[in-house]
Amino acid sequence: MIIWINGAFGSGKTQTDFELKRHLQDAFVYDPENIGYFICE
Asked: Is the pTM above the cut of 0.85?
């Protein structure tokens, strides 16, 4: 199952991701924003 969370910057998407991870067994959080930071540098 993939849960895709989309929204504006600073709206709490990452925090929501990690809260879901706490409740879902074997969950993995993939944050593409980290890739964007890497590409821009």
From this structure: no
